[in-house]
Write a structure and sequence with these properties.
Elements lengths: L2 H22 L12 H8 L3 H13 L3 E4 L3 E4 L10 H9 L4 H25 L2 H15 L5 H18 L3 H4 L2 H14 L6 H19 L3 H22 L3
Amino acid sequence: MTRRTALKRSHQEEIVRELAHEIVSGRRPEGSLLPSDAELMARFGVSRTVLRETLKTLAAKGLIQPKTRVGTRVVERASWNLLDPDMLRWHLDCGIGLDLLSHLSDVRLAFEPAAASLAAQRRSEADIVLLHDIVDRMEALDASPEIFAAADLDFHLAIARLSGNPFFRTASALIEVALAATFAITTPVNNPVAKAASCAAHRRVVMAIAVGDSEAAADSIVETIRSGAARVAAAAGR
């Protein structure tokens, strides 16, 4: 890829992100029409070809629908592809809503216990060492909220990988956005009791996987997800 091509692609990605943010945030409501091609080309200083590629990207995510002689309309939210990694990150950029975060927790509860159960059947000794090391990072006395959050993410991504199921591994973006949104609202790090409880719950997942107890691994990872959801609900006064 030439430098000129890279710059062109980078500019196009910026335009996609800016328009996506306007739609996801509600500044461009469902059912509304985007400005004309001529207006968008003038606004962003791009050619018709670049604009068309930009709109194709947004259409592929389910955000817009171009129609001849009508224009490009913002699609209703029910039709958006919320499992798309870019879509999830755009929601996070715009301040993910509590309802959507609750829905994300529901989805995690649907697949992470199955991933933990499979991990208990397929893990190696090296895998167990890795998981214990991650929890050690969470338990460290000097673990900042950022370090704790990164370790928590590494833990859940590792479980998805250890499941050996490629579909669980591709759900990593969903886990990442859910955890990032959760830690943006609340963290257990500043509360010694909450931190100890979170670390203990994660350690129970490791111990269950280590002895090959699929049921206990699934139950334990449910506990970690629900505790995070409970912290968010408490922080939001729900």
